[in-house]
Q: What sequence folds into this?
């Protein structure tokens, strides 16, 4: 049990589908993050939420839409994705910058 | 801006060999430094951290010392095991840039029996 739970673990979706990734933490952390990890590429920070407000959006295409309804939950809504969006999507949470993050196990997304 | 550079992999070692994975950083102020490990098919796990100069982080036989004079945070282990095969990420966080961690590209380690 890592403290950060992501569902589903695996997802296959067509380019016209709409799906959502879910992340949940019960660590009392006040910041949550979405990262994208593609083969042969560095980890890409997508979104940062601090106290349920989005504080960073790193030029992510609008087909990715985050939602943070409360400090324990974070969603990533997906629609009309492209095959190049296939990757491991990692959620993380933190309490403060010098404690580091706690990561979930990730959702392996395949777009067909 | 802040950045982290770590040695390119893959690194292949025999069991019980000595491991060093180099990491250097560029940052203003007083960043905190981290090593994360990612086992196949899993997310990243915090391996160790150091929050100020000359601190030594250690965990599971791994060590890294925060060297401000050389802006480095090299990961070492005296005797690696097959189970240490994974990808290792050096990372930095800085109060100047809020919460966000800045990751290196990762170094893949394969330990053979």
A:
């Amino acid at each position: 049990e890592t403290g950060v739970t992501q569902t589903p673990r695996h997802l296959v979706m067509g380019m016209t589908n709409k799906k959502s990734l879910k992340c949940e933490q019960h660590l009392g952390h006040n910041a949550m993050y979405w990262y994208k990890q593609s083969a042969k590429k560095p980890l890409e920070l997508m979104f940062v939420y601090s106290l349920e407000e989005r504080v960073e959006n790193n030029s992510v295409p609008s087909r990715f839409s985050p939602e943070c309804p409360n400090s324990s939950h974070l969603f990533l809504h997906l629609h009309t994705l492209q095959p190049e969006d296939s990757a491991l999507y990692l959620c993380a949470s933190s309490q403060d910058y010098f404690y580091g993050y706690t990561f979930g196990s990730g959702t392996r997304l395949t777009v067909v | 801006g802040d950045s982290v550079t770590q040695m390119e992999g893959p690194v292949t070692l025999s069991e019980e060999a000595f491991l060093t994975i180099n990491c250097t950083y560029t940052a203003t102020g007083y960043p905190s430094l981290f090593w994360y490990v990612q086992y196949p098919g899993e997310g990243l796990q915090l391996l160790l951290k150091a929050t100020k100069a000359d601190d030594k982080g250690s965990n599971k036989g791994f060590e890294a010392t925060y060297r401000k004079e050389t802006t480095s945070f090299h990961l070492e282990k005296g005797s690696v095991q097959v189970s240490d095969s994974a990808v290792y990420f050096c990372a930095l966080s800085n109060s100047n840039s809020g919460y966000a961690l800045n990751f290196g590209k990762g170094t893949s380690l394969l330990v053979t029996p």
Remarks:
- The mean pLDDT of chain B is 93.
